[in-house]
Amino acid sequence: MSESVETRGDDRRDLIKGDTDNDGRTDVWVSDTDGDGKADLFQFDTDHDGEVDITLVDLDQDGTPEITVDGDGGHAPN
């Protein structure tokens, strides 16, 4: 876990969970945190250990993340 970062809301709903290397563990999480059905939290497991390695937050949902941090940004996937 890393320092906590701001998201659009507190109600996390995973829109996409993907296993990009077919090892049976999720590597990509795309989530909505404010309930509008649009993605604003993007997380990636880049070393395939099952833990979030990088978090991107798109606060204004324009397709360009404003925040990028190492780790889960205080928003660990369920």
TrEMBL record:
Protein name: EF hand domain-containing protein
Chain segments carrying region Disordered: 1-37
Native species: Catellatospora coxensis
Organismal lineage: Bacteria, Bacillati, Actinomycetota, Actinomycetes, Micromonosporales
Basic and acidic residues bias: start-end ranges: 1-26
